[in-house]
Amino acid sequence: MDTSEDILQQAPPGLIPGSGTARAAKPTRLSPSFISWLQAGPMMLVFLAFFLIPLVFVVIVSFWDYNEYQLLPAFSGRGYTDTFEGCIAQLPDLCTIARTYLMTLKLCFLVWVITLFIGFWVAYFLAFHVKSKTWQMGLSLLCTIPFWTSNVIRMIAWIPLLGRNGLVNSGLVKTGLINQPLEWLLFSEFSVVLALVHLFTFFMVVPIFNSMVRIDKSLIEAAYDAGATGFQTLVNVIIPLAKPGIVIGSIFVITIVMGDFITIGVMGGQQIAAAGKIIETRVNALQFPAAAANAVILLVITFLIITMMSRIVDIKKEL
Amino acid sequence: MTETTRKKGFSRRTLLKGTAGLAGLAAGSGAITGFPYVKSAETKVLRYLGTAVNEGDDISKQCLKDTGIKIEYITATTDDVTKRVMTQPNSFDVLDTEYFSLKKLVPSGNILALDAKKIKEFDNITPVFTKGQTPGGKKIGNQGTAPWKVLYLEGKDSKKFATSATEFVTLIPTVYNADTLGIRPDLIKRPISSWSELLNPEFKGKASILNIPSIGIMDAAMVVEATGKYKYADKGNMTKEEIDLTMKVMTEAKKAGQFRAFWKDFNESVNLMASGETVIQSMWSPAVTKVRSMGIACTFQPLKEGYRSWASGFCVSKGVSGAKLEWAYEFVNWFLSGYAGAYLNRQGYYSAVLSTAKAHMEPYEWAYWMEGKPAEKDIKAPDGSLLEKAGAVRDGGSYEDRMGGVACWNAVMDENDYMVRKWNEFIAA
């Protein structure tokens, strides 16, 4: 709220409804908070119509029953009980849903750590080592290259590189480092993490870079003047000030990876379970309530992770 | 002569309809009638929902030329076609779908059966569909959702499949084929004759099946039965215990690293095979052709346990009536009249009315595709590209041998819900 009012005060007259010429002609009694609501209004409506209402429907449908060809609008917990089938009976073996989420969380964690590491240093380089604005722009656009192709093309492109007879394997065999091609290069957890990192590092770079360019350079100079080493400056000045960017980037990456099933399917050779994949299989079998139940579960878990992260950093305050 | 007279009749009718439509439209919309509206009133348009199998551009062009009906393709995967019929029955006119989805589509009431009496070639449809046997009299396996089990309805608006022939046909048959395993003979270097080879440790890390639960489990069942572990009463309608058993065998193989990857999409299967990532996998006929056209040896291997077959056909949306319904009949009749059938036969599929397709094919083409004889001349695809050199013989041989060797049909099981859950478990294992 503070921020929007600040903007209000700075904005030239005429841009704000009810201000400027309009106000001069006929004094209005619109309170600043009402104007703020008005400004946020369109976005709120979009959210309401295309996010909140559909979400409510998903939750409702998740408690419906179904048969082979239609939804039965009667209360039923079947979508949920089916999903958690065997979770107690099979102990100590893990049930399907637990295995699936364990795998999804594992992939999510690996991708998060790696994209954070790479993204942080790319952003650091862009923010502190590239002086010209044009170069900064140009280089960050380069990070979007992985998005220029479709998923199918990407998958087809990895086979000649990582496949059994691919470039990497034949190179390694020729140099004599290995005798047999490495099978785990493709259709494995390795290749899934590789592809996800390749795709989503960009989502880390942008917010972290955004936070970093806003760091007052004199703070860094002050740190040096006070005798801090480069490492101390990094840990005590740059990282704390880049925190909002780090958290926003993390939220991007984690939410995307939690819901991804296409990249995991394609790069994992369809042999690696993903939370999103369960939903897709259910939808394809026309079992919408079961799919909705799984969607609600995924949403709750992702929401918990995000809540935990925003506990660590208060984004609203930092912004 | 009759041909020309009929065509003249059509064009006169088209003209009349066009004019009437135009007048109605002009009256309805007044001055704002734009050019595109005028155009659509002149042509008979049918929205055609289906998978890519039947949807050749050449077919729609020829259809427009012969009948004046403009086909607008809406292409989706088999699953998405079914989803669309359930959720948006008014978004299409003609539906091209597989027989096994009828168990879901018919009870939903979203599709209309067609009247057999209005289908000119109905009596010439291959007995594969109507009697469950080849023209030569070979009995075809009836496990799964075999077309003749779901071909007829008891009445016009009935939701029950009739046990004997009625005039209400759920799907007018168009295209079908017998699927088996694809192999790379250059990398395997020995004869393959059984489905059980899919789980042979010799091919560890080089095998694949498709990740479409309802079809994948049928292939899995063919494998389980071939290994001698179990004999199913009906592979297309397993009990819960049978599903458990099948998935257990497959899960063990998966954990042991038997499978390189599962595939879901035509191109994935082509790439896996062409790159040598897999050497044996469940496959579709045109995918094998595609690999071969890349200059890579690939065989659609006939196996002693038989084929898993599928079939599709036409029906219409429940929203179709009046003139549009007549166009739909006209279109279906055209589809069975030979051009499309020959086109499909040349792609390695089979057409439902053999006699008309034969009339549209060269004798040497018919001999290669349907009679299993060595090609007298180079065999070309409908687009003119070279498929096989002269002297080649079709994998699996003749129509009689291939269709006669069908063991089971794609299916939706009674325990479908349970099966899908077990399939998810298999993927997660």
Topology summary:
The complex is a heterodimer of chains A (319) and B (429).
Chain A: H1 2-10, H2 21-25, H3 32-62, E1 65-66, E2 71-72, H4 78-83, H5 96-129, H6 133-142, H7 151-162, H8 167-174, H9 189-213, H10 217-225, H11 230-259, H12 262-267, H13 275-284, H14 288-312, H15 315-318
Antiparallel strand pairs in A: 1-2
Helix pairs in contact in A: 3-14, 5-9, 5-11, 9-11, 10-11, 11-14, 13-14
Chain B: H1 2-29, H2 35-42, E1 44-50, H3 57-67, E2 69-75, H4 78-87, E3 94-98, H5 102-108, E4 111-112, E5 114-115, H6 127-130, E6 143-144, E7 168-169, E8 172-179, E9 181-183, H7 185-188, E10 207-208, H8 213-226, H9 240-255, H10 266-274, E11 280-282, H11 285-293, E12 299-301, E13 307-317, H12 322-335, H13 339-346, E14 350-351, H14 354-359, H15 363-369, E15 379-380, E16 386-388, H16 399-404, E17 406-409, H17 416-428
Parallel strand pairs in B: 1-2, 1-3, 6-17, 10-11, 13-17
Antiparallel strand pairs in B: 3-13, 4-13, 5-7, 8-13, 8-14, 9-11, 9-12, 15-16
Helix pairs in contact in B: 1-2, 8-9, 9-17, 10-11
Short recap of the structure:
The complex is a heterodimer of chains A (319) and B (429). Chain A is 70% helix and 1% strand.
Low-confidence stretches of chain A: 1-24
Radius of gyration of chain A: 25 Å
Count of discrete alpha- or pi-helical segments spanning 4 or more residues of chain A: 15
Average pLDDT confidence of chain A is 85
Broad structural category of chain B: alpha/beta
CA-based gyration radius of chain B: 23 Å
Which structural class best describes the helix and strand composition of chain A? mainly alpha
| Main interface by residue count | A-B, 38 and 39 residues
**C-alpha end-to-end distance of chain A:** 11 Å
Assembly classification: heterodimer
Tally the helices of chain B: what do you get? 17
Number of strands of chain A: 2
Task: Considering the chains and any ligands shown, give keywords for the structure.
heterodimer; A: 319 residues; mainly alpha; two-stranded antiparallel sheet; 15 helices; globular; disordered N terminus; B: 429 residues; alpha/beta; nine-stranded mixed β-sheet; four-stranded mixed β-sheet; 41% helix
